[in-house]
Design a protein that fits this description.
Strand order of the largest sheet of chain A: 2-9-4-7
Structural class of chain B: mainly beta
Number of strands of chain A: 9
Radius of gyration of chain A: 18 Å
Structural class of chain A: mainly beta
CATH topology of chain A: Jelly Rolls
Radius of gyration of chain B: 19 Å
Number of helices of chain B: 1
Shape of chain B: elongated
Shape of chain A: elongated
Helix content of chain B: under 10%
CATH architecture of chain A: Sandwich
CATH class of chain A: Mainly Beta
Helix content of chain A: under 10%
Oligomer: heterodimer
Number of helices of chain A: 1
Largest sheet of chain B: 5 strands, antiparallel
């Protein structure tokens, strides 16, 4: 039978071996969580920034879940980005309650940064006091 | 109205006397990951049970594989599927399709790895894979 080796596996069996970074092998998963309460003055193109600390440069983001109540606002479409990479290019319409998730496996962050939700579309004022929660898991070490 | 409560394994151990210690892979252990990616060359075929091995570091014996994600960037092979295992721990057993760009998830959650092993993707179906398709996997496991 033939065996083919993926990138990190190739590095491991090379001579001399090439060390795999923690973001690929055996790194510990960290959690990033924050929530935002709508104030109703948010407009299209505005951004919502999350987090007490930045997600570091070089982190591998494993998951990003945006859980939102029914935000109203006619139609609310968002984009989520962090550290120079796009996590969600075009969200579901957040007019109705739900959860939107990361667009598959993404590259490592190219800079340290806070996750930023951009209101790509917002046709009318969102409903005040509604919440948006963000949960990200990532590996850096 | 009276109701009855039943205790699962770890709960039973925690309540026993003397107390039976709960292992980290069952309770409060930390997630670790194994991430790797592979670009097909067009030489991969299931005719001889071809496999693709992933991982920079071996997944240790005794690890509990909680779940795994696999992603293909395009059509790797019409009519072809793949299964993912870490040693004897089957992770994807429902045949992950390779016939379109897809994001797939583990069929099992919580299998333990009996012998230290790298994750291995085994191909099924007929013929060879298309070239230049990127296959990524990430495995979440707990050991301590």
């Amino acid at each position: 039978m033939a065996n083919f080796s993926a990138s990190a596996q190739t590095n491991t069996v090379a001579s001399p071996p090439v060390n795999s970074p923690a973001t690929s092998s055996a790194g510990r998963v960290r959690v990033f969580y924050d929530s935002y309460t709508v104030v109703a003055t948010e407009a299209a193109a505005d951004t919502i920034t999350f987090g007490a600390e930045t997600i570091p440069k070089g982190a591998r983001i494993l998951s990003a879940d945006v859980e939102h109540e029914a935000l109203g606002g006619g139609s609310v479409i968002c984009a989520l980005a962090c550290g120079g990479i796009t996590l969600i290019a075009t969200s579901v319409d957040m007019v109705t309650a739900g959860v939107d998730a990361i667009d598959g496996m993404v590259a490592v962050t190219t800079s340290a940064g806070y996750p930023i939700l951009t209101l790509s579309t917002r046709t009318s004022a969102m409903t005040a006091a509604k919440t948006i929660q963000l949960l990200i898991t990532y590996v850096i070490d | 109205m009276a109701f009855a409560n039943y205790n699962a394994v770890s709960r039973t151990n925690a309540l026993s006397f003397p107390v039976v210690n709960v292992k980290a892979i069952d309770s409060t252990g930390n997630f670790r990951i194994c991430y790797d990616e592979y670009t097909t060359t067009g030489a991969e075929s299931d005719a001889d049970d071809s496999t693709i091995t992933f991982g920079g570091d071996i997944v240790p014996a005794g690890s509990r594989v909680c779940f795994a994600i696999i992603q293909t960037s395009g059509t790797a092979g019409i009519g072809k599927t793949a299964n993912l295992a870490v040693g004897t721990a089957d992770i994807i057993v429902g045949n992950q399709t390779l016939s379109a760009a897809a994001l797939g998830y583990s069929d099992t959650h919580g299998e333990t790895v009996d012998v230290a092993a790298f994750p291995v993707l085994t191909l099924a179906g007929s013929g060879t894979l298309a070239a230049d398709v990127l296959i990524k996997i990430v495995i979440f496991y707990v050991i301590d």
